[in-house]
Amino acid sequence: MFKLNDLVVYPSQGVGKVERIETQEIGGATAELYIVRILSNNVTLMVPVINAENVGLRAVSSLRVGQEIFESLKDRSEFTGYTGQNWNRRYREYSEKLKSGDLEDVAYVLKELFLIGRDKELSFGERRLLEQAMGLVSMELAYSLDRDQEEIKDDIHEMFADVIRTDDENDEEPS
Fold it and tell me: Are residues 46 and 93 in the same domain?
């Protein structure tokens, strides 16, 4: 059970803070609710305490887990690329991983999309998923590692600097 002011992660929304724990009557039944404010966009969520684990509400990753995830972004040994996978299949797979709320899954999507971008220009949908994954990973790592979110983003961009296509590269004519 979470306490007042605990930092939590809500799947596909990111890091939030438990602002209140209150009891409300909903549909004739009494329910205890976590009132969670998502820190990135100030959205307020009401999560039934009894169902919090089922919807994926969890504590922010520990320092150790944050460090492991950060290091795992550097490891490219298991990247097989997108050969044989069509965009619809990848999109569904990546969307499910983002919704899972598991930091490791979200970091996987982030890394895959950066590495796919090495070989081809990312589509609008891919770029949108990349931005979502970057926001979720960088925010949780910022709280987990006690660092600034922009510094985390900069470090991740630096990690993938060798694979990020620039506008000049995208516009070049093939020789």
Answer: no
| Residues of the chain where predicted confidence (pLDDT) is lower than 70 | 80-85, 163-175
Read off φ and ψ for residue 76, nearest 5 degrees: -110, 10
> What are 158's two structure tokens?
């630096």
CA 24/CA 45 separation, integer angstroms: 14
Residue 93: which residues within 8 A CB-CB, separation 6 or more?
Answer: none
Range of 84's domain? Answer: 63-171
Q: Are 163 and 122 in contact (CB under 8 A)?
A: no
Q: What is the pLDDT at residue 81?
A: 66
Supply the pTM of this predicted model. Answer: 0.86
Token reading at 109: 């999507």
Q: What does the alpha-carbon distance between residue 174 and residue 171 come to, in Å, rounded to a whole number? A: 9
Beta strand pairing call for 58-59 and 14-26: unpaired
